Amino acid sequence: MTSDFIHFFQLLDTLSELNEAEKKIMKTLFSFRYVPKKTILTQAGETAHELYFINKGLLRLYYRKDGEEITAYIFREHLFASSYDSFLKQEPGIQYLETLEDCQLLVINYRQMQELYQTVPKMHIITRKIAEQRFINAQQILSSFLLDSPEERYAKFEQSNKDLLHRIPHHIIASYLGITPVSMSRIRKRRIEQQRK
Amino acid sequence: MTSDFIHFFQLLDTLSELNEAEKKIMKTLFSFRYVPKKTILTQAGETAHELYFINKGLLRLYYRKDGEEITAYIFREHLFASSYDSFLKQEPGIQYLETLEDCQLLVINYRQMQELYQTVPKMHIITRKIAEQRFINAQQILSSFLLDSPEERYAKFEQSNKDLLHRIPHHIIASYLGITPVSMSRIRKRRIEQQRK
DNA sequence: CCGAACCCTTAACAATTGTTAATGGAGGAA
DNA sequence: TTCCTCCATTAACAATTGTTAAGGGTTCGG
């Protein structure tokens, strides 16, 4: 269905103008997939073969350390998501990619992606800009670890992701902020007390 | 001089094969520059107009918070460096870019960069791959903040950057690791004591 | 409807890091 | 050389976070 690609092309059009022929090719290479909550799309130790565009739902990328799951990133609607490290290098990675909600995804695999680069050279421009944005984004998160205290980091997260506090378990957010659930709970308490004044 | 471009093309050739005509264009657009130690190349609050390739020397990217300098990244020889955020968006940034040693740089400005995209379309592929690598790199550093203790982070840094411990002041490394110089000194002491056993 | 699993919060204590300040060494400038 | 600045280390104390454990609420499946 064309309606599956509305947000997809809305994003791509901001990066590089695509004509109808190019869009048609892309529609044949990306496929629609429904994935239920708590599905692991990529396992650590295996190579990520697919790249996803999220039409609806949430994904998270995480590491495992000592049996514990540590969130590296939470992907929202209308973003591309993958265990990039593994997908780009086509080597086994150390990250897991999992759905946090029932998801509607557009999917392309690595081979199809190479085909896309061949048939739609503009794709190099698009993925360059996406990679640049991702890099800037990663750098911003990194800066928060260097410049901010855990409490400030929580405050910023709350400000720009108010909805996620209700959509996903807190301990996932805590690990994303680099703290324990206990510590995050204390921070939340402190902030509520301070708001009273 | 052609010898100025040896490492430059050595890197680029691994990303996409360039013919002599393309290399010639690049030689005219990149210019050679000698920059003494402790020179600020990009100021926070200003737009970064240039992108650098480091032939020799070290650069560091840093933030300022409460008068303190906090290192975001240390660029080595044969890497591209810039205050990317500002350079890519062509907006004022919040980072400073400074030489840590006397440097030999290849320089291109934003306008020339756009010209390069026009005349050498392959450049989109090259910068896409560079951006992807940078993203993976940033993600790796980020994972170290999520998964490792400050002590483990120091250990990993020491392992992969042994030379930097002698080339640059420790407090710069400490801020890069997200800790204070005092804490880093304690970590170093602990490690020496443990090695005795 | 009930039990089990999951999860947020709270408490108490341990461990680590941050803060402030002092010391002494190294390196650059005049 | 001598002075001065910068810097690494150390100590003492404060603040924060981590750890472990317990209680109670919610959700989901049988």
Automatic annotation (TrEMBL), chains A, B:
**What are the residue boundaries of the Cyclic nucleotide-binding domain, all occurrences included?**
24-116
One Pfam family of this chain: cNMP_binding
Give the top-rank taxon of the lineage listed in the UniProt record for this protein: Bacteria
Name it: Crp/Fnr family transcriptional regulator
Q: Which organism is it from?
A: Wandonia haliotis
Lineage here is: Bacteria, Pseudomonadati, Bacteroidota, Flavobacteriia, Flavobacteriales
